[in-house]
Amino acid sequence: MYNLLRAGIGLALLSLAAAPATGASRFIQDPYPSTYQPRSSEAVLIHNATVLTGTGQRLDDADVLLRDGKVVEVGRALQAGSEVRRIDAHGRWVTPGLIDVHSHLGVYPSPGVSAHSDGNEMTAPVTANVWAEHSVWPQDPGFAEALAGGVTSMQVLPGSANLVGGRGVVLKNVPTTTYQAMKFPGAPWGLKMACGENPKRVYGGKGTAPGTRMGNVAGYRAAFIDASDYIAKNTAKPAKRKRWFGGDKEDSSGDSGGKRDLKLDTLAGAIQGDIRVHIHCYRADEMATMLDLADEFGFRIAAFHHGVEAYKLADRLAQEGVCGALWADWWGFKMEAFDGIQENIALVDRPANSCAIVHSDSPEGIQRLNQEAAKVIAAARRADMPAIAPERAITWMTANAAKALGIEGKTGTLEAGKNADVVVWNGNPFSSYALADQVFIDGHQYYDRADPRSKPVSDFRLGQEVR
Amino acid sequence: MIGARIKTAHALALLLGLAALPATAQDLLIRNATVHTASARGSLSNADVLVRGGVIQAVGSGLAAPAGVAVVEAEGRPLTPALFGGITEIGIEEVSGEESTVDSTLTLGEQPLRPEFDVTLAYNPASILVPVARVEGIGFTALGAHTGGGFIAGQGGVIRLDGSADPIGPRALYLRLGSAAAELTGKSRAAQWMLLQQAVDEAHGRLGSDSPHALLTPAGRRTLADYLAGKGRIIIEVDRASDIRQLLRWSAREKVKIAIAGGAEAWQLAPELAQARVPVFVDALGNLPTTFDQIGATLENAARLRKAGVEVSFTQSGDASHNARKVRQLAGNAVAHGLPWADGLAGLTRVPAQALGVGDRIGSIEPGKLADLVLWEGDPLDVAHYAEQVWLGGRAMPMRSRQTELRDRYLPRTAQP
Asked: Among all residues of chain A, which has the CA nearest to that of B388?
């Protein structure tokens, strides 16, 4: 009943029901808040492992202590009471839980029937008003397979048909009935934008704008001009001289002006830095154009996604603090992917202050992000580049991914106080033969390879499980 | 350790680069390799392989180098037959999204069933996809016809990626069954058997070629009749167990040689497939119910099939052509999920060569076979390792592609940390 009421009069009650963080802009109030609750967890000491901390360190014969859902300590010969569960990880490797910054699980779920095609609102080129979370089907069997691949968090994004596809959402990879119960508490939303061939093909094919790359850019600019105007209208004017007969009509937050526009809320939130901008963009020249667009309207780009030509722009990406979320080896499936090389991630990783990320964009790829990284390490070695150590490569799918998503304060590394999102691997994770043995999210063990019954079974699979 | 290996690789490239040797040099002694023969001899440690005139002459230890024969010191590294790249469109498509560069699919509105359609006629050995796959240790591929206008897609053949223009061995006929082809068969998979039976009747002359109901052209009848007579294998893309069961009944009745590609639920019929000697090209990374035909998909598909005695090879459902090199990852993951390593390698070498009718020439390291070889920097089934040198017909292939050219253009341009 409460939920019904809230849904029915959500707009009117917004500021009450959404309980935004103190001082949060009205553009990012959340009427669909996270209901995620960490599951109970016992204290665990994983000992004698090769530990990749996600901070660039490798510790051999090391231990990781988890308690109350947090990483307590990482180091050698840790002491723990007899009540602490011990996992002998001799010969095994331990890493932070993997994070995929680019997934369509839930919005393009399996089975991929027409009724499940919920990832692209292909009805207008700018749909900043739609939120991917409202398409997420928590019963997608792909979530459990990604868990078995060590993925503990992911960003689910709208597709790339539109110039501005809508808001993405960061999820914890836990089995639930509602997406709200997966929603990563406190994680900022992403804004999905797309360069290049997809938007111009989708809309140009319908005889509407954009039909060209210049049409694409005109479309982004028009949208951000509207958003800038919207911000101006919603920003408190300098206080006027108070008159004895009237109060100040501006409210204290300054977010009072006019009817809400969901599309402009999202774009305004992006300009103000509260929503992270993630841009599907393949070609180096188009990435440079998007960097100029960001300057024109005063927003920051968190990451270019796919970026098969990111290697041509690696220094600039590092200088501007923009991550490259990339594949190891996809190329050639369309013209803008023609210049893909297998050293892309390694080259983007190379400059100082770089932020290279392995992403999947695929329900298969998300299950083996570690293997994607392994390909890059091998390709770099083949190219006679300086050796890429495992402790470095792990950051591509942990710390750097967390940074791009704005959750680096909570997960992505094995440091005291971080969420106990942890994977125990059967060996070096950078191999075709690597398998996740155990996966913990906030200290709760969600997967144990030795116990097939531990793997979550989506409602869809019931009655037709594969044994 | 790694540095030493790189130096070795570079020395090898210098020694064997095309500039350093005449292009016709097809004599070679590879010494002290771990030779994975993909034959009954299995894997041999500290073994040598002697190549004369592009053909493997001897495999053993302590082989002497005849005068003038280049010697490669393998230092114990793995040597395998050049790998199978899966069923692909290498050389018959350049950019998947650009129709003007794609020749793998026939879409004729009138009379869509054209088994006589042969994609090998479109093969372009100058395609940039050829070296991109080759530098990764891929030596041959099955060019496949893709389903376009009809569920009988047409014919393909085996291409060696040595720059030669023509296929080797027999053609194969490609067919698709199940939900993915239902749109082409009146929206029911049941109609696939109805139409196939009629096509067979026509090939056997049981329906006059002038009949208004005829599905096939006279050339199509002759082509299909060849396959019904066992002159080539029919490769069927199919996933659902119930469809595979119907297929086995059909192939037994018509006495045709078939193979299955995809086969997500093939493991459910593993004993029947083994008994009927039907090889399966598995997409070993498929474990999701991507469609309702793949409810039973599992990463153990390859292992379960092999355990029952089925010959298992690999092929990808996704970006099979541009990323043909990913086929190694399929095999490695199948091994991680229970397939014996030797069967993983066989699935990339001997098994597909035999299934495609070219096993007498390629697919294993044995005297008399073409010297299509790869020297690896580490385990060839592990993506953590790469191909150091590829020889096709005994010729050292340049380990370059358009991608390495791009890499080397931009590698020096970005800052070192």
From this structure: A382
Question: Which ipTM value was assigned to this complex?
Answer: 0.94
Listed in order, strand segments (DSSP E) in B53-179 are 55-60, 70-73, 78-81, 83-88, 138-143, 152-160, 168-176
Instruction: With beta carbons less than 8 A apart as the criterion, state whether B27 and B70 touch.
Output: yes
pTM of the model: 0.93
Q: For residues B192 and A242, what is the distance between their CA atoms, to the nearest angstrom? A: 82
Inter-chain Cβ pairs, chain A and chain B, closer than 8 A: 151
DSSP output for A325-356: EE-SS---SSGGGTT--TTHHHHHHSSTT--E
Interface of B with A in 318-377 (CB under 8 A): 318-319, 321-323, 325-326, 328-329, 332-333, 335-336, 377
Tens digit of each residue's pLDDT, chain B (417 residues): 333 333 344 444 444 443 444 434 699 999 999 999 999 999 999 999 999 999 999 999 999 999 989 999 999 999 999 999 999 999 999 999 999 999 999 988 778 899 999 999 999 999 999 999 999 999 999 999 998 889 999 999 999 999 999 999 999 999 999 999 999 999 999 999 999 999 999 999 999 888 999 999 999 999 999 999 999 999 999 999 999 999 999 999 999 999 999 999 999 999 999 999 999 999 999 999 999 999 999 999 999 999 999 999 999 988 899 999 999 999 999 999 999 999 999 999 999 999 999 999 999 999 999 999 999 999 999 999 999 999 999 999 999 999 999 999 999 866 554
Interface of B with A in 205-244 (CB under 8 A): none
Secondary-structure percent of chain A, ordered helix, strand, coil, rounded to 5:
30, 20, 50
Considering only CB atoms, A315 lies closest to which of B321, B335, B414, namely B414
